[in-house]
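Data card: per-record layout.
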Amino acid sequence: MNQEKLGRTISEEMNKFTEKYMLPDRAIHSEDMPWMPFDDAGSWFKPVRFDFTTGMWINLFKVDKGAALSRHRHTGGFVIGYTVQGKWKYLEKDWSAKPGTLIFEPPGDVHTLYVDPAEDMITLFMLDGCLQFVDENNEIYREDDVFTLYRRYLYYCEEYGIEPDKNLCF
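The structure for this 170-residue chain is written out next.
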């Protein structure tokens, strides 16, 4: 068998194998779901992925103009965010985000998210691990992770008669 034919055979065999065992692709339509309250201070979320094997959760996160998400720390893995709308910053940092800004947060960083008063902020966040809210004494008073957010999503769907999107878990 010549090298070209062998390459095609291996490729065809691998394609059949991966098609048999790979996860199905997904298309999540976030515009079809309502903004769900994240807290009582003007923060909202739309989940787009819950990964129970890695602890990763991805969501569109909205904070009302001029509002803040209280002081918090991320544990576990890193956080990546991509700003879609509005301007925001962490009060403890020198940078600010605007549409098109990609941000990276190392685990353990403590910060307070503040949104510019001119416009609501929407950012796509990819998070691993836990989100711990801390008070002025650095005491943890709330924790969120992939499981608490999924539970909140299911409770919200049940309360408002919405069919949960099973495509969000993969």
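Known properties of this structure: The chain is about 20% helix and 40% strand. Helices lie at 3-21, 146-160.

See the next section for split statistics.
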